[in-house]
């Protein structure tokens, strides 16, 4: 997943100043105070209807939209809100990578087994950020980071876009787009590609890799080829070393029924233990995650004195962690179980971890 906040600086200003809502809001210099130099940092979607966009000279913006609300940037505030958003996103998955002040990648393959799950989680994330922070974001769900980033831009503002992983689906999604939609092809390199006859991504699909390499050079051709065929395999958070195994589930309907919750935890526990046995992994710590109606999320951990892989022992620990929430009568929306402080049975250590969970490691 790629999550990108909508017109970020402007959204923060609108949230902090409700009177701005529904108006064109422009972040940058204030031409109404005679400041005619500088550029638009960003602007609200209402301002975009007048043709305004990031990097436009403020003088031109003022001509197009003289009645707009012009606001000086407050960077510290944006950094603060960005941190709050990232804290929420990090809770969704341990494989997380902030990619700038208003965007992040999340590897959610552990919690989502298919695209429907992915869409549901993406919609939940949008709702959660809107409720907790008061601004909107857009989410792309796709088989690679680059495709997810392209996808998050398609239904802005406040939209989810899902791209399937079959070659035909990727091609259908990308082919009509102009080439600058590929992150890395900007205004300057666009001219280079245009001269060689590439305007839309469809033009790239018209060539086999060797042909592309002859026209564009081997490195550029390889890169473009990987992007358009969904083969860009950069992991989310290159520096993440996997040291946990977990699963989560969201209830179709929020529930207070302890038996349902316990049964669900038991299923998760059993499924994770299958994985642990397959990978010959032991753990020392088990963590229960629980989210109540309204996104209030808690985690509780228990560490064993020595490493173990005993699912009964784990289940007992999970249930006693669950007990700590017995007095909370709110409906439960999501539960998760995670094992950390992993080690392998044989002396092989990290190499084995990588072999069993290659999809998540750098
Ligand atoms: P973006 O995510 O590129 O833009 P955005 O969030 O304003 O709008 P969108 O809904 O299209 O995502 O950039 C994030 C923030 O970075 C943006 O709010 C302001 C800042 N920024 C600049 O200061 N100068 C720029 O040229 C751009 C593009 C962004
Ligand atoms: Mg943005």
Strand order of the largest sheet: 5-6-1-7-8
Q: Please give the share of residues in helix.
A: 40-55%
Major sheet, described briefly?
A: 5 strands, mixed
Estimated radius of gyration = 24 Å
Counting DSSP H or I runs of 4 or more residues, the number of helices is 14
Beta fraction of the residues? 15-25%
- Extract low-pLDDT stretches: 347-352, 354-362
Mean pLDDT: 91
3D architecture notes:
By secondary structure, this protein is α+β, with helices and mostly antiparallel strands. It is 41% helix and 20% strand. The longest helix has 21 residues. The relative contact order is 0.10. The C terminus is likely disordered. The protein binds thymidine-5'-triphosphate and magnesium ion.
Please describe the topology of this protein.
Layout: E1 2-5, H1 8-16, E2 25-27, E3 42-43, H2 45-48, H3 58-64, E4 69-71, H4 75-92, E5 96-98, E6 103-106, H5 115-133, E7 137-141, H6 145-152, E8 160-162, H7 167-174, H8 187-195, H9 201-205, H10 209-216, H11 218-228, E9 244-255, H12 258-278, E10 281-292, E11 297-308, H13 311-323, E12 332-340, E13 343-344, H14 350-356
Parallel strand pairs: 2-4, 7-8
Antiparallel strand pairs: 1-6, 1-7, 2-3, 5-6, 9-12, 10-11, 10-12, 10-13
Helix pairs in contact: 4-5, 10-11, 12-13
The chain binds thymidine-5'-triphosphate (TTP) and magnesium ion.
